[in-house]
Amino acid sequence: MTEKPQLSEEEASLLLRQLLHKEGNWVEWGKACTHLQKAGYNRQTIFEQTGFQGSQQNLIVVAAQVYDSIAQGGASPELLSYCQGPVSDVLYEFRILNQAQRAAAAELAKEKKLNVDDAKEVARAIQDFSRLSQLPGGFVNHPGDAIAYQCWKRAKQQKDLQLRSRLIARGLKFAHSHAAREKIEQLLSDFTVVPQSTAPLMPLYRLEEEEELGRNVPLAGTFPIRREDLEVVKAVKTQAPFGIVTYSGSGAMVPLPGWQVILKAEDPVAILYQSERLPQQLPGMPEQVLVVVDRGARQWDVNSYFLVEQGGKLELKWFAESPSVNILGRLMLILRLKKIF
């Protein structure tokens, strides 16, 4: 277990004083907050003694981490000088990118004088661009072309000529390669509208009848298992609201109805989810739902949602095109609790 770094009272006082008087730049403030927090000072205590609100602390701490990753990648002195300026909110938006992407995005931000809204759009465009199985024709692997591609794609789907023109102008502003500029300029004379791919309806179910509940069966583990793993399985008890089973062995279980969507799953796994964190907003109040993913279904198709790993976390995503990230399973259903009036 990693021990918390210890700060002497004198060292902590120096850091708090630095924050109180705003000595140095925001990168140093972010690192000071990090040292204090790791030493056991909570955000409220730091706020009371320095005036840095919790949200401000979070922003500069994360942005300072982004700055460090850019610096460690061998960024030029000019880029580092730009990053040390009043752009902590811009760098914060690049937290979702990897080290190389962050440096490239920061260069673009410096060149185009991006604000925080621009930075957020650029970060998402770079991330979406990197997930494509291959580079689109006419566009190169550069953050400028990434956002130019998004503008080009959206402009092709846009019937409103005024909005279409704005997207074309924005694409030309960011386009890095000559081929990308030519691709976007073609839209000035080609007014063909390409239908937009829309996310499919989510496979939403709700328990309606008590007899739909299945039997709780203990799970001995994940194959391959040992004989001892099988023999150690004890009697099970269920917990509300979904009848989750916990026992002295390893793992847990949940009862599911014998619906075809469950029966045809090759390797189903259940995950508890908060409805507001799903890719689409569900009608009604936020509630806990049960997501069932088939780990045996890893072939992409446009009519399904998939479980993928991003930034060390699992997420449910829909992809209009075949993604470059590894698919861990296909979403089979989302189960809501029985509605009681």
Can I get a quick summary?
The chain is an alpha+beta fold and about 350 residues long.
CATH class of the largest domain: Mainly Alpha
Elements, N to C (H/E): HHHHHHHHHHHEHEEEHEEEEE
List the total number of helices: 13
What is Rg? 25 Å
Tally of structural domains: 3
Secondary structure: number of strands: 9
What characterizes the major β-sheet? 6 strands, mixed
What is the terminal-to-terminal distance?
Answer: 49 Å
Strand composition percent: 5-15%
CATH topology descriptor of the largest domain: Arc Repressor Mutant, subunit A
The geometry reads as: flat
Low-confidence stretches: 216-227
**Whole-number mean pLDDT:** 83
Structure description:
- It is a single chain.
- By secondary structure, the chain is α+β, with helices and mostly antiparallel strands.
- It folds into three domains: 114 residues, Orthogonal Bundle (Arc Repressor Mutant, subunit A), CATH 1.10.10; 57 residues, no CATH class; 92 residues, Umud Fragment, subunit A (Ribbon).
- The protein is 41% helix and 13% strand.
- Strands 1, 5, 6, 7, 8 and 9 form a six-stranded mixed beta sheet that branches. Strands 2-3-4 form a three-stranded antiparallel beta sheet, with no helix packed on it.
- Helix 9 runs antiparallel to helix 10.
- The protein is flat and about 65 Å long.
- About 4% of the residues have low confidence.
